[in-house]
Write a sequence for this structure.
């Protein structure tokens, strides 16, 4: 029987979900000059609004991972996308600082579970040699959002005003939530779109695949050095990325003197780079693992080298003498993080096993604590010491993430020695 490949349809749908999620985030960043002008908000005010989103978003990471393991990714992703789409639309109705902050926090609460739930989907739906590449669909969708986001948002703002952006993308999100519910069964064996050959390919390759719903062994997690290390490195990785997401449009206009139209084009280059690198890195990483290279080398070295390259390029960007040279180095810097993002999510499925949802929820929680701090702290540094100081500080944070990566051991799952996950795998391998 010819094998179906429906799992890759879900990968494309995860790409679209990632795209919409980041479009909904970057829209506020691009609309920041218009919103500041209409309501007389300061950079500090806008930083708090961005932070309000990340407070809600980070709060739902670990609960989102647990819910995905207990309720299934079908229900959790559908509810998450529908919830955040509603509050995307409601952003257009806000009229004060307080209402902006409340709506953005509730928006973050809705979006929080979606990435841990999609990581859970990847752990169930993909061959172990495909998980890195499958993760790249989820991540690249997120990163391509800011590629098109500035240009699309600028067009809609100029044509219909900034509020139209949030209404239109909220409606698109609602349609995608419906598509996920219709297409994404909680397990490939429950899907009417998967034939026996594809099911054998998915299930037969992974002896650790889940047999029953279980709570993750959190006591074991909290005593694991690599559990903390993957969280620390992602805190740094996300901190740097969210500085770009929250402030790149305004930075290019204030510090580099780009017009609104030119900013829309210039801001796209760094995000295009990270999208391309994420896809390429995931593909290469999976190929290296398939050829027998230890995951420690395929994931850990790739993750650390991405942060090292980001650090160097971001510092050079801060010191650049011309606007377009600055954009060049910012493109190299954010593009380099594609190596780290790809390695991070692949390592989560490696060390988490059937508890990939909980581990990825933890990692994304740590990352989004960085997201809470990045908008407001960067605004404070830029206001008091200038944009160059803000960018240089951001660059030097990468050193912490590089050190943390070397405590991550993707060849070893985090699980107690008497875990059902290990005993079942051992039994099936006999």
């Amino acid at each position: 029987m010819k094998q179906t490949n429906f799992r890759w349809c879900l990968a494309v749908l995860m790409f679209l979900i990632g795209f919409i999620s980041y479009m909904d985030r970057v829209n506020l960043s691009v609309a920041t000059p218009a919103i500041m002008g209409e309501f007389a908000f300061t950079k500090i005010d806008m930083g708090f609004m961005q932070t309000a989103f990340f407070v809600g978003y980070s709060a739902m990471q670990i609960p989102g991972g647990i819910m995905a393991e207990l309720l299934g990714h079908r229900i959790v992703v559908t509810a998450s996308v529908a919830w955040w789409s509603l509050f995307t639309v409601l952003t257009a109705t806000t009229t004060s600082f307080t209402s902006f902050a409340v709506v953005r926090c509730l928006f973050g609460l809705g979006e929080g579970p979606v990435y841990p739930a999609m990581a859970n989907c990847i752990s169930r739906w993909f061959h172990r040699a495909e998980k890195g590449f499958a993760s790249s669909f989820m991540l690249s969708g997120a990163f391509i959002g800011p590629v098109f986001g500035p240009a699309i948002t600028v067009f809609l703002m100029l044509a219909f005003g900034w509020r139209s952006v949030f209404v239109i993308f909220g409606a698109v999100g609602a349609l995608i939530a419906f598509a996920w519910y219709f297409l994404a069964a909680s397990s490939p064996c429950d899907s009417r779109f998967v034939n026996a050959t594809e099911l054998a390919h998915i299930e037969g390759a992974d002896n650790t695949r889940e047999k029953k719903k279980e709570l993750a062994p959190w006591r074991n997690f909290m005593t694991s050095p690599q559990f903390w290390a993957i969280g620390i490195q992602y805190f740094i990785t996300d901190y740097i990325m969210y500085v770009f997401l929250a402030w790149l449009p305004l930075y290019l206009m204030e510090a580099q003197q780009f017009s609104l139209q030119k900013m829309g084009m210039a801001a796209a280059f760094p995000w295009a780079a990270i999208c391309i690198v994420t896809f390429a890195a995931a593909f290469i990483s999976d190929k290296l693992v398939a050829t027998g290279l230890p995951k420690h080398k395929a994931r850990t070295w790739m993750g650390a080298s991405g942060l090292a390259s980001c650090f160097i390029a971001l510092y050079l960007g801060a010191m650049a003498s011309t606007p377009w040279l600055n954009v060049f180095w910012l493109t190299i810097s954010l593009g380099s993080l594609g190596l780290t993002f790809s390695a991070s999510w692949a390592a989560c499925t490696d060390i988490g096993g059937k508890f990939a949802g909980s581990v990825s929820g933890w990692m994304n929680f740590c990352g989004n604590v960085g997201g809470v701090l990045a908008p407001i702290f960067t605004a404070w540094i830029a206001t008091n010491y200038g944009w160059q100081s803000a960018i240089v500080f951001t660059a030097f944070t990468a050193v912490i993430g590089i050190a943390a990566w070397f405590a991550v051991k993707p060849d070893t799952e985090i699980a107690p020695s008497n875990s059902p996950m290990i005993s079942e795998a051992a039994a099936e391998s006999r």
Remarks:
- Confidence is low (pLDDT under 50) at residues 416-430.
